[in-house]
Amino acid sequence: MSEVTYTAVVTSTAEGRNGGRATSGDGALDVTLAVPKDFGGSGDGTNPEQLLAAGWASCFVGAVRRVAAEKKVRPTDLAVVAEITLHHDTAANDFKLSAALHLEASGVDQATADELVRGAHQLCPYSKATRGNIEVTLDATVA
Which residues lie closer than 8 Å to 76 by C-beta, 6 or more apart? Predict the structure, then answer.
């Protein structure tokens, strides 16, 4: 078993994604949840897909930096745009997720940016947690 580095504790209350709240045990996170307007909701809050995208993008950019350091390359600017899509299979009345992770980098060539995004996907804990469970597409753009 590996050493525990950190455990996040978040509680979701009431109706969950439909008007509930999500709060962290340390008080740093306190958000109102709402179904997105695109999905027929009020859109008056955040939603679980946005929270997943924020966490994954943040973790992934850190993984890119780690891979870059191992390869001894120094991108000058990095950004990761995470798109989390909620799919509704109306025939089965079932839901599933997919993800697209877009690396935006400068200070490296396209081949290096492609290597960084592939390496980060092998290293990032969010990528590991979802591997084989959801469809994930990766790409890199050099500015």
Answer: 106, 107
